[in-house]
UniProtKB/TrEMBL annotation:
ATP binds at residues 12-17. InterPro entries: Depp_CoAkinase, P-loop_NTPase. This is Dephospho-CoA kinase. Belongs to the CoaE family. Catalyzes the phosphorylation of the 3'-hydroxyl group of dephosphocoenzyme A to form coenzyme A. Pathway: Cofactor biosynthesis; coenzyme A biosynthesis; CoA from (R)-pantothenate: step 5/5.
Length: 199
C-alpha cells in the first residue's frame, strides 16, 4: 500500500523547498499548482466551465485564459473568488486524484503538494499532512523580500490564506523551516528514515 503525504504551508513558508527535498530522493510529486494550470488549458472542460461562469472576456484571442482579466474580476470580490474555487474544484480535485493513483503504482510514498490543502478540504485524500511552518515575522519578511512588496501588500496576501498557526494545529507532521535549509532537510530525512521510506 502506498502512503500519500500531503504537504502544505503558507505563502513564503518554504513549502517548495521541502517538496524539492522529497523530489531529490526520487519520490513522485503531484503538484496542485501545475494541476490548477493544466485544467484551464485551451479547450479543456475546466476552461469552458470558467467561460460559462465569468463570460467570454476572460478568454484571449488565442483561446487561453486571460489571468489578468480573471484576476481583476475576483481579486477584491470574496463572493466571486469563492465562485471561481467552486467552479474549478471538481476539475482540480479529479486530476489530483488521478495523478495520485497513477503515482501510487510506481512508488510506496507519494507527495501531494497543495498550497491551499486545508482551505480546499483535501486532507481527506491524504494519509497524513505535513505543514511547513515559519513564525509570522519570518513569513512576512521573506514574502516582502521575495515578492518586493511593502508590509501592507504582504499582509494582505498572508491574510487571504488560513494562518500558519491554524495549519500547524491541524498538522500530523510539522516541518520547522525557521532555521537553515540544512536543518529543514534533516527533518525530512529523519521522517523518511523513521517511516522506512529510505534506509
Amino acid at each position: 500500500m502506498s502512503f500519500v503525504l500531503g504537504v502544505t504551508g503558507g505563502i513564503a513558508s518554504g513549502k517548495s523547498t521541502v517538496v524539492d527535498f522529497f523530489k531529490a530522493k526520487g519520490f513522485p510529486i503531484v503538484d496542485g499548482d501545475i494541476v490548477a494550470r493544466k485544467v484551464v488549458e485551451p479547450e479543456t472542460e475546466g476552461l469552458m466551465a470558467l467561460k460559462n461562469t465569468f463570460g467570454q472576456t476572460i478568454i484571449d484571442e488565442n483561446g487561453q485564459l486571460d489571468r489578468k482579466k480573471l484576476g481583476s474580476i475576483i481579486f477584491h470580490d470574496e463572493k466571486k473568488r469563492a465562485l471561481l474555487n467552486k467552479t474549478l474544484d471538481p476539475f482540480i480535485r479529479g486530476e489530483i486524484q488521478r495523478q495520485t493513483e497513477e503515482a501510487k503504482l510506481s512508488s510506496d510514498l507519494v507527495i501531494v503538494d497543495i498550497p491551499l490543502l486545508y482551505e480546499g478540504n483535501y486532507e481527506t485524500m491524504m494519509d497524513k499532512v505535513a505543514v511547513v511552518y515559519v513564525t509570522p515575522e519570518i513569513q512576512l519578511n521573506r514574502l516582502m523580500a521575495r515578492n518586493h512588496l511593502n508590509e501592507e501588500e504582504a499582509m494582505e496576501r498572508i491574510k487571504s490564506q488560513l494562518s500558519l498557526k491554524k495549519k500547524k494545529e491541524r498538522a500530523d507532521i510539522i516541518i520547522d523551516n525557521c532555521r537553515s535549509r540544512e536543518k529543514t532537510r534533516q527533518q525530512v530525512l529523519d521522517w523518511l528514515q523513521k517511516n522506512k521510506f529510505v534506509s
